[in-house]
Amino acid sequence: MNWLLRGSAVPVVGALLFASLPSAALATDTPEQVTLMASSCANCHGTDGRLAGSIPALAGKPASELETKLLAFKHDEEVAATIMDRIAKGFSDAELAALASHFAAIDPAGEAALATTPGQQE
Questions:
Q1: Is 101 exposed, middle or buried, given 0-12, 13-18 or 19+ CB atoms closer than 10 A?
Q2: What does the pLDDT look like over 12-37, one tens digit per residue?
Q3: Is residue 16 part of a domain?
């Protein structure tokens, strides 16, 4: 019985240690962390947010516009939501702002512009 009590204390101690980490240690301020978060957007918005169609492209849109829209989804202020309201709720406001900045910095033409550089043979 004594081993059972010790074993059940491990998750509690782990949770307390995790909760005691400084918030900076959990921040999403590195480009790698933001890129990882943004990769989940590719399912609907395409690689690097460039997919054009019924789901809007994100690449190159103003960060303030993207952030406002993401926050509206998160706080149930956007009525024309399908799944974005549920997805946005999984991110903090700071993470949504970082994602908005990430997609705003992407050239919407991207690889298509590179593929048609002058002098290339097709």
A1: middle
A2: 444 444 444 444 444 567 999 999 99
A3: no
CA dist 3 and 6 (Å) reads: 5
Q: What is the CATH number of the domain that holds 79?
A: 1.10.760.10
**Would 7 be classed as within a structural domain?**
no
Range of the domain at 44: 29-109
pLDDT at 116 over 50: no
Give me the number of domains the chain comprises: 1
CA atoms within 13 A on the CB side of 98: 17
∠ CA 82-111-83 to the nearest 5 degrees?
5
What does pTM read for this prediction? 0.68
Grade residue 110 by pLDDT with cuts at 50, 70 and 90.
confident
Task: Give the whole-angstrom CA distance, residue 80 versus residue 87.
Answer: 14
